[in-house]
Write a structure and sequence with these properties.
Layout: H1 14-37, H2 43-64, H3 73-97, H4 103-110, H5 113-124, H6 132-149, H7 161-180, H8 183-187, H9 191-214, H10 224-257, H11 260-276, H12 282-299, H13 301-310
Length: 320
């Protein structure tokens, strides 16, 4: 008899927060890898190579661990939908959208993902209903990202409207994927098999699009830096990251797992400061503080602790 799925917790423990932080580093590094790789590979072909390499690496890792891919049309139909919602569609939408808008504005639009997740999870799940703390925390997090990236990123808001809508649809797609992934718990699909199956189906969906739109066989051979960036993107920001993400999704749920979109700008700024010696601006510190308040509001424990501290102590019992 299969083990029953582990219940989702509204509050993350130390292990979940550690995974979320590591995910922010891995996915924050993806922006660097993509920027380097785009110098030699067009966007849809880049995503195709990323997902194909990840699928191969994950499959080899699965076999070494003694695991197998799931079987049955029901599971693979769900995996194709997950590959579409979590990879193929949003990756293409963001790649296309960033041809018309800045990366800063795209990151702000991407930060709406947890807000979409709160709405979608409330409507489509029984164990992740919206609370005032979650809504307030997500809104604080979005404001924090805006402050951190800088008001200049909003200067183009309203221009290139179709590109901005494309990024918002991509954020909604991520939220739908995180909720759709709930069904795999009941099917008994493990995180490694889920990550592998998603990568295989995403690559299969992207292949005809890349062949028709970008004719990659006509491209010149990429340079060493482009190949290194593609490997980094596939190994660290896709293969390892998605194994962690689906493990986190099993226990922390859709809304909590997508909080990583708030942490990605923080890791990018901290890496730039620590590695490249870049200066931290006051607005970035304010943005980080707002994001921290938002995460605390969603988690709920700091506010519960403060509430308990403010409650008066019960009077001692009367003496006989």
């Amino acid at each position: 008899m299969a083990n029953s799925p582990q219940p989702i917790s509204a509050r993350m423990g130390a292990a979940e927060w550690a995974i979320l932080t590591l995910l922010a580093v891995l996915w924050g590094g993806a922006f660097f890898f993509i920027e380097v790789a785009l110098a030699g590979v067009p966007p849809i072909t880049l995503v195709l190579v990323r997902m194909t390499l990840a699928a191969l690496l994950l499959y080899v890792a699965m076999r070494l661990m003694g695991q197998r891919l799931p079987g049955g049309w029901r599971v693979w139909r769900a995996l194709f939908l997950l590959g579409l919602l979590n990879n193929a569609l949003p990756f293409m939408l963001y790649a296309w959208g960033q041809m018309a808008i800045t990366g800063g504005l795209a990151s702000i639009l991407n930060a709406t993902t947890p807000l979409w997740a709160v709405v979608v999870a409330h409507l489509l799940t029984d164990d992740e209903k919206a609370t005032p703390g979650k809504v307030a925390g997500v809104l604080l997090g979005i404001v924090g990202v805006v402050v951190m990236v800088g008001g200049d990123a909003l200067a183009g808001l309203g221009d290139a409207l179709v590109a901005q809508i494309a990024c918002l649809v991509g954020a909604l797609s991520y939220a739908l994927a995180s909720v759709q992934a709930h069904g795999f718990r009941a099917m008994g699909v493990r995180p490694m098999a889920l990550a592998t199956g998603q990568s295989i189906t995403a690559a299969a969906l992207l292949l005809p699009v890349a062949l028709i739109v970008e004719t990659p066989w006509r491209l010149p051979m990429p340079g060493v830096s482009v190949v290194a960036a593609l490997l980094g993107l596939a190994i660290f920001s896709t293969t390892f990251a998605y194994v962690l993400y689906f493990r986190l999704l099993e226990t922390a749920g859709a809304t909590n797992s997508l909080l990583v979109t708030f942490l990605i700008p923080i890791t990018a700024i901290l890496l730039g400061t620590l590695v490249l010696g870049e200066r931290v601006e006051p607005g970035q510190l304010i943005g980080m503080a707002l994001i921290a308040l938002g995460l605390a509001a969603i988690d709920g424990r700091p506010w519960a602790w403060l509430t308990r501290r403010r409650q008066p102590l019960a009077p001692p019992p009367p003496r006989p």
